[in-house]
Amino acid sequence: MAITTAQQDELIDTQEQYFRTQNTNNRGAICFNNAINEYTQKLSDRKFSLSINGGQDIVSSAINYINLRLDSFLYKYFIQSDGCLYKLIGIIRLYCPTTNNFITTIEPFLTTTSLIIDFATRGALTLAYLHKHKIVHGQISTKNVFVTEDSTFRIAQILVDVADSSVDEKLIIAQRGIFYELVNILKWAKEQNKELARPLQECVCQIVQTLIDENKPVVDISFQTEILTELKYLVDNTLSLDEIKFIHVDTLKQFTSFGTTYEQEKIMYDMGLAQTFLKTMKSQLCRVVEKSAVAIVNIMIYDGFELNKQEPHPNFLECDHKGIISSLFQDGIINGKSQLAKSICAYGLDWIFKTMQLPNEMKPDIVKQLKVGMKNESITLRS
């Protein structure tokens, strides 16, 4: 199954937030007759339809949707009644006509409970994506949506695959070429309209973040692909500042936190990743600025210039010329959105000016924030 017992237990299935009041004409297709709890009864009475968790990320939407189905009718009908299986197949056919050939092929092989539930879960993933993004069946085709040969939306399937994976399982997923697949999705999304592209791009970020978080072997694999280049392009060129969210910035920041070999750090510096974060330093979102500051400082402090060396920072002039110094000071300290951002920027500037005098116009503010930062033991880099 694509969902764990722990995930089922975490779902709060008694909140109205999973539904919105709406008269719906699709009761005949969904067939929630003989519902076994009050929520599916509301569906069968044509009073409610799914709103998928108020527009949260796809993985949460999919998990909530699957949990709701499992809790309310999946075990009862999919284990005890073949009829419900065919109702689900009817829904998938309604929304995804291009999958008819697969459905026709797979039906005879759904002979065990586990196969039936697994197929139902994949179907629920498909419907979760459709509901969340209000995609009607006429818009679904292999040309404009990533549909795999088993009729699932690949991006939603990947999210669920990695969400609860162990460190070793994530490595296996990476070794199978997932980053190449994600690169292709990002490239494909560039050519799509915002309504379809933005959720896909955000989901790719979430997948990458989950995979590389504190997982050095996976990070090493990622650097052998174009995934960092494509994510950088996304923030640099595709998203406006107002569109940039925490997930976009934190995903890029993760590379600076866990890409710690000299070669990886040099790749990030040479590709101008620090300049990417100059854009996000101007965000109105506090956490975006904090992670941007951490990323810039991570890039500036790399193994090629060890902490105990006393010579000037080798890239000082370049940092000054490209606006890194002014951004850390103006956007981070003077206009900083939080104390954490100010302290991190002060630390970074102190390091860049390591063997030089701090500029008179900057020194009081930098020293002040360094003192505050020293008192706050929770402030750490690479985080």
Percentage of residues assigned to helices: 55-70%
Q: Strand-residue fraction? A: under 5%
Order of helices and strands: HEHHEHHHHHHHHHHHHHHHHHHH
Helix run count: 22
Unreliable stretches covering 5 or more consecutive residues: 1-106, 134-152
In whole angstroms, how far apart are the ends? 34 Å
Layout: helices, strands, pairs:
Elements: H1 5-10, E1 19-21, H2 27-30, H3 38-44, E2 48-50, H4 52-55, H5 58-80, H6 82-95, H7 100-106, H8 113-133, H9 154-163, H10 167-175, H11 178-189, H12 194-212, H13 216-222, H14 227-238, H15 246-258, H16 262-270, H17 273-280, H18 286-300, H19 316-321, H20 324-334, H21 339-352, H22 363-375
Antiparallel strand pairs: 1-2
Helix pairs in contact: 5-6, 5-8, 5-9, 6-8, 9-12, 10-13, 11-12, 11-14, 12-15, 14-15, 15-18, 17-18, 18-20, 18-21, 20-21, 21-22
Q: Main attributes?
A:
disordered N terminus; 383 residues; 2 strands; mainly alpha; Ser-Thr/Tyr_kinase_cat_dom; two-stranded antiparallel sheet
Plain-language structure description:
The longest helix has 23 residues, at 58-80. The protein has helices at residues 5-10, 27-30, 38-44, 52-55, 58-80, 82-95, 100-106, 113-133, 154-163, 167-175, 178-189, 194-212, 216-222, 227-238, 246-258, 262-270, 273-280, 286-300, 316-321, 324-334, 339-352, 363-375; strands at 19-21, 48-50. The protein contains 22 helices and two strands. Helix content is 64%, strand content 2%. It has a two-stranded antiparallel ribbon. It is globular, with a radius of gyration of 25 Å. Helix 9 packs parallel to helix 12 (194-212) and helix 21 (339-352) crosses helix 22 (363-375). It has 383 residues and is mainly α. It has a domain at 1-161.
